[in-house]
Hints:
Elements: E1 30-33, H1 43-59, E2 62-65, H2 77-90, E3 96-97, H3 113-126, E4 129-132, H4 136-145, H5 163-171, E5 177-180, E6 187-191, E7 195-199, E8 207-210, H6 218-228, E9 233-237, H7 244-256, E10 265-269, E11 272-273, H8 289-295, H9 299-307, H10 322-328, E12 339-340, H11 343-356, H12 359-372, H13 382-396, H14 402-409, H15 433-445, H16 454-468, H17 473-485, H18 493-500, H19 502-515
Parallel strand pairs: 1-2, 2-3, 9-10, 11-12
Antiparallel strand pairs: 4-5, 5-8, 6-7
Helix pairs in contact: 1-10, 6-7, 9-11, 12-13, 12-14, 13-18, 15-16, 15-19, 16-18, 17-19
Function: Catalyzes the attachment of glutamate to tRNA(Glu) in a two-step reaction: glutamate is first activated by ATP to form Glu-AMP and then transferred to the acceptor end of tRNA(Glu).
Catalytic activity: tRNA(Glu) + L-glutamate + ATP = L-glutamyl-tRNA(Glu) + AMP + diphosphate
Protein name: Glutamate--tRNA ligase
Amino acid sequence: MSDAIATDHxxxxxxxxADVPQVDADTPVxxxxxxxxxxxxxxxxxxxxxFNWGWARHTGGTLVFRIEDTDxxxxxxxxxxxxxxxxxxxxxxxxEGVQVGGPHEPYRQSQRKDIxxxxxxxxxxxxxxxxxxxxxxxxxxxxRAAGRDPKLGYDGFDRDLTAEQIAAFEAEGRVPVWRVxxxxxxxxxxxxxxxxxxxxxxxxxxxxxxxxxxxxxxxxVNPVDDALMGITHVLRGEDLLxxxxxxxxxxxxxxxxxxxxxxxxxxxxxxxxxxGNKKLSKRDPQANLFHHRDxxxxxxxxxxxxxxxxxxxxxxxDIFTPEQFVEHFDVHKVLANPAxxxxxxxxxxxxxxxxxxxxxxxxGRLLPYLQAAGLMAQEPTDREKEILAxxxxxxQERVQLLGEAVDMLAFxxxxxxxIATAEGAMKGMPADLGAAVSAAREALDAxxxxxxxxxxxxxxxxxxxxxxxxxxxxxxxGPVRVAVTGKKVSPPLFESLEILGKASALARLDRFxxxxxx
Length: 518
């Protein structure tokens, strides 16, 4: 049991004055991203990080990255490292916080218990929190007796306990929690996203900030950290909007005891919705940021799309670079309406950003995907590098995700004998397939090794198949395409044949002829 409360010096509980300095246009911007390290990085969570980063960079302010790791059962170091990986990959850097340090260390809640204990003592001494002995069952019983809904929550019974009542509860061995007294008046604030919002007096019950064992709850430590770290703008998810009146009441108390210097501005970002207008669940693959990265999103494309989940550069402009985002981002222009994660649109935007890359950059980003598929060695051979350099431009204009290029280019890194004809690839072939394959082989074989170029290949095949056999282009080149790639659709045929080289092209035509019994 905890030490009995000495009541002779305990001030009467009170709500703090609403007269707290406000952040203004001249206050240097300090924002924070403070996730709990649980699970994999959710796109909605990373969108919150992005908007905080964008506001800090746009205003020349400071981004603080701290970790709320007080839930030992759910928090994990693996999840923390994944958050760092996700932010680093997207290019979201931070000025203070975990891994980089700063003037307000430590930046993990689990390492700040002494700080919270000191603040708790200040709040107790000032009378801004009060001991509450009521059990949930007693509170429900009082509601029933008064004809109220028993689920209304705490009823303020312990607000004004006398010293004798406290002594009696202590004598029973009860251990109190500690609550903040909500003001008996409306709480109004101007949300940076939603405008003026009012919570009516009595709509938010007095809330617990200290457990019976004396440890601080999240309801206390989050605003305390914000206050001590000088956070000026609290940008967070819409789900936390209902907690704002509690935090405003607590901030008033923190200001009164010298912990807070001012009241921050609050902005609540819209929900990210999935299919069917439901909140994007952690169980939905689309919610996992790494799902998109692994499928072939590039950082510029995904950052662009995440920024569109509540904000836009202009009514008719969806494509912008990270630099343009920083230049134009204004949290006051974020929309309050829920934003739907449209993967089809995200993929299209990513494709545009892929086409904006220079060739060397695109090639470098493609390499890990080809290596992961086993098409290129971890230490690529000279021949593999040569193929990639020649082939990358052929797919850069055609892919929307880097992962799509793996399937498109696989035939170039596959041994001639291992090319397999895909199901459905033979549909639409010319009636005399044997003649077409034979004519194509003869035309290519007639070209010299050093003259096996895209232009020469195209001229030779057109002369043999279109002029000679009078085939339409699709029927003329279809057999050659399937023979050398195994597929009905591939990167440009003539360029692909040049990359493969004469010997490989002929070998693949021979393999195809044998496979088809020609």
